[in-house]
Amino acid sequence: MFLKVELPWNVMIPAENMDAKGLMLKRTILVQLLDAFASKRATKELGYYLTVTSLDKIGEGKIREHTGEVMFPVVFSGMTFKIFKGEILEGVVHKVLRHGVFMRCGPVENVYLSHLKMPDYKYLPGENPIFMNEKMSRIQVDTLVRFVVIGTKWMEVEKEFQALASLEGDYLGPISEE
């Protein structure tokens, strides 16, 4: 789910980037904010950081004694993506294993769909393994699959979410096949 968030942040501007007339200050702050925002991948509370939508407030700058940098407290609005239990999403299969498949859903790289949560689908091994049901519907690499999230886990070290998925429900399953 996409979330609109308002966040406080401290932006550090090196002294050599300060304009004597202050004309480029807002632009410099925005560039530094975007760089810092891009390097911060995700948090458990807000999910994956996607974009800054507006710079809402710039506080008074304070000079850091030892570095000479100027720290500006700012408040900005942005968009994040966080996956929730019970949510219906779509993902693209990137790995097929005997016991299930791994999918990507937006910035979430590891959504696992177990063979136990794919009713009527059977594993067919081979050079390009697939799961297929009696109606010849296939789940294979690059298949777009609609699924329900049955669990999520935040991985602190990697700064990413992992999710468990299921096809148990109406209108769930592959929605495109190559």
Strand/helix succession: EHEEEEEEEEEEEEE
Question: What characterizes the major β-sheet?
Answer: 5 strands, antiparallel
Helix content: under 10%
Q: What is the mean pLDDT?
A: 92
Structural class label: mainly beta
Distance between the termini: 27 Å
Percent of residues in beta strands? over 45%
Poorly predicted runs of 5 or more residues? none
Query: Overall 3D geometry?
Result: elongated
Radius of gyration: 22 Å
Distinct helical segment count: 1
Instruction: Tell me the total number of β-strands.
Output: 14
Task: Please describe what this structure looks like.
By secondary structure, this protein is mainly beta. Helix content is 8%, strand content 53%. It has one helix at residues 25-39, and strands at residues 2-13, 42-43, 47-58, 62-63, 70-81, 88-97, 100-105, 108-114, 122-124, 130-132, 138-139, 144-155, 160-166, 173-176. Strands 1, 2, 3, 4 and 5 form a 5-stranded antiparallel sheet that branches. Strands 6-7-8-13-12 form a 5-stranded mixed β-barrel. It has a 3-stranded antiparallel sheet with strand order 9-10-11, with no helix packed on it. Strand 4 and strand 5 form a beta hairpin. The chain is elongated, with a radius of gyration of 22 Å. It starts with a strand and ends with a strand. The model has no long low-confidence stretch (mean pLDDT 92).
